[in-house]
Amino acid sequence: MSADGPASPARASAPRPAELKLRGATFGNDDLLTMAIVNRTPDSFYDRGATYAFGAALERVHQVVEEGADIVDIGGVKAAPGEEVGVAEELRRTVEFVAAVRQAHPRLAISVDTWRHEVGRAVCESGADLLNDPWGGWDPRLVEAAAECGAAIVCTHAGGLAPRTRPHRTGYTDLTADVLDGVMKLANRALEAGVDPASIIIDPAHDFAKNTHHSLEITRNLDRLVATGLPVLVSLSNKDFVGEALNVPLEERLTGTLAATAVAAWQGARIFRVHEAAQTRQTLDMVSAIRGTKAPALALRGLA
Amino acid sequence: MLLAAALAPHPPLLFTELVGPPATLPEAVRSLLSGCTRAVEHLVACRPDTIVVVGAAEASRDYDPRGVLPVHRYGPAAPVGDGAAAKEGRAEDAGVLPLSLGMGSRLLDLAGWRGERRLVGLAADAPAAECAAAGREAVRAGRRVAVLAMGDGSARRGPKAPGYLDARAAEFDAGILTALSEADAEALLAVDPALARDLLAAGRPAWQALAGAAGGTGQGARAEILYADDPYGVHYTVALWTPLSESAPGPGA
């Protein structure tokens, strides 16, 4: 048993799955995946309603697929506090849209960002492959919905926050141990509920109940999450920890985001939830080329 | 006997090493720190035998004055146990202090207080009577005592506030500020603990301990507000109460 934190069956005894399974789509362990954010919200922090309308959102899906996105992550509710979005409204924003995306892109992996089991079940019936739960199992029935539908699930360290609440002075005695403990508890729940071991993903959730120091620290220690053997998803894109590290406003955070992306990828993170799919794809391909898991696209220089 | 009492807030950003290099500190942080420093320097200048720090904590009990300041909980990059703790006269086996008392300790250190200090924690849900009694008990007859009460107002003052917006916050904080500026111990004792908790106002136990400490003078107190603002969505007040009793000499007497 490692000194990293409490023992957990999923870590101690389960072999590392040979591949990552998102229902129909499978990915090898060397594959670095981009998950492109498509928000059907009027008020998310970065896109601020740009893809709220059905047509605009579908256009964005076509675009990110062109840019090489492996997964699209469709969200109906903004993460930060604000106007209440109930179950009915969230269903309205997501279910039909998921069906349209599935029809337009039969082989694209579709993720839906939701904490609610009602939405989870409905979007899986419409074609979703992955339930990206940003609030760490707040609704205990979501993982059951994933298991019953054969969908994958993201186990997120939300620090115990209720959905759409912001932390107030969250402090940790040992941040990394707390994150590991949190995600592994959820991962074990998912296993017990019957989710395929190859379909369980963990996410430290940068900036969720974590200040900038915390988000930097968990990035620095990402190798300890990778060491669990479960695929690690990181959502770094344009977040405040990048903004505070570099003292840059929202629209100037791409460079810092890509730097953090390269570091996380080097340490073994496998799925990257992003706004800028094309630039992230290049960053990840560069890391793979350096690592040697992906040949350079073309090598002629010096070989003539 | 109570010589003077101060109230100061305890946001982690007052551990300014967490925010950034001194030259880059935002004006709001500088100005808040300056208000806190002035209040604590006033307490020190009264030349008390002991300064009692009181604030919300996990439990209602005394905490070891040698306890480690909880800075690393908010910024893990600052290494713990690298000798820095020992240099400050603290001991890791004395435990980690709760935020309110740790911040009070930091302010005392910044003001150069080398005399006796006592750290009194009050459980977040301790009833008003218990908090007031803790304040009274801290100010025992025969000793010259200064009290540093540590606590903030509501964290739900707007859409960008940590606790988002609760429409009741503004009026709640305004009421507290009025009570503090009039040295109105009774008004502080009447604050509803459930409302304070709903509004994420960490200072409720501290305000009521302050009221208990000052209420015993029987002759009221002069109040001064050194700071009152919410630059980041949480209400911070720095206040100074000086009892009007003739037997409590002012600073320099």
Looking at this protein, list some descriptive labels.
heterodimer; A: 304 residues; alpha/beta; two-stranded antiparallel ribbon; B: 253 residues; 7-stranded mixed sheet; 9 helices
The Cα radius of gyration of chain B reads 17 Å
Question: Main β-sheet of chain A: number of strands, strand sense, barrel status?
Answer: 8 strands, parallel
Mean pLDDT figure of chain B: 91
Instruction: Tell me the Rg of chain A in angstroms.
Output: 18 Å
Helix vs. strand class of chain B: alpha/beta
Low-confidence stretches of chain A are: 1-13
Task: Count the beta strands of chain B.
Answer: 7
Name the helix and strand elements of chain B from N-terminus to C-terminus, one letter apiece: EHEEHHHEHEHHHHEE
- Indicate the low-confidence ranges of chain B by residue numbers: none
Got a strand count of chain A?
Answer: 10
Mean pLDDT of chain A: 93
Helix fraction of chain A, binned, reads 40-55%
Query: How far is the N terminus from the C terminus of chain A?
Result: 53 Å
Series of secondary-structure elements of chain A, N-terminal to C-terminal: HEEEHEHEHEHEHEHHEHHEH
Q: Largest beta sheet of chain A: what is the strand line-up?
A: 8-7-6-5-4-3-10-9
Oligomeric composition of the shown chains: heterodimer
The gross shape of chain B turns out to be globular
Instruction: Give me the secondary-structure category of chain A.
Output: alpha/beta
* Spatial arrangement of strands, main beta sheet of chain B: 3-4-2-5-1-7-6
